């Protein structure tokens, strides 16, 4: 399973999200983000365009994940170093691993991280 986790600022566009995803070169099976961001029109549009579902990650599950990168804003708002990385890991499930640090869209409005988990 391949999960694309997203962190993004309010007002991020679908183009920002798509740009961050494209920087990963991944073809995800599922999109994920913090529960508070899952209803974003931009993320909903991206999911529809890709034919994928969105996994909304609870705050406690975000905080439980070890991330490769650390943003002061993400720590203050969500209790994790990277919403994108934590969401990807949480949604991918036990034994998941990040393929690398999050990638940030050129406009700095969105980030995307990829987590993979081998099939059980």
From TrEMBL:
Region (Disordered): 93-120
Source organism of this protein record: Pararhodobacter oceanensis
UniProt KW keywords: Methyltransferase, Transferase
Protein name stated in the entry: Precorrin methylase
One Gene Ontology term from the biological process aspect of the record: cobalamin biosynthetic process
GO molecular function: methyltransferase activity
Keyword Methyltransferase set for record: yes
SUPFAM superfamilies with a match to the protein in the record: CobE/GbiG C-terminal domain-like (SSF159664)
Domain CobE/GbiG C-terminal: 2-115
């Amino acid at each position: 399973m391949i999960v694309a986790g997203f962190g993004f600022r309010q007002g991020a566009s679908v183009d920002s999200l798509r740009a961050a995803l494209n920087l990963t070169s991944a073809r995800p099976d599922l999109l994920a983000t913090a529960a508070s961001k899952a209803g974003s029109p931009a993320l909903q549009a991206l999911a529809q365009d890709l034919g994928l579902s969105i996994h909304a990650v609870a705050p406690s599950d975000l905080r439980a994940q070890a991330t490769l990168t650390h943003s002061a804003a993400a720590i203050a708002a969500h209790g994790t170093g990277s919403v994108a990385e934590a969401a990807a890991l949480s949604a991918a499930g036990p034994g998941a691993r990040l393929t690398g640090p999050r990638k940030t869209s050129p406009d700095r409005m969105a980030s995307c991280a990829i987590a993979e988990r081998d099939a059980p």
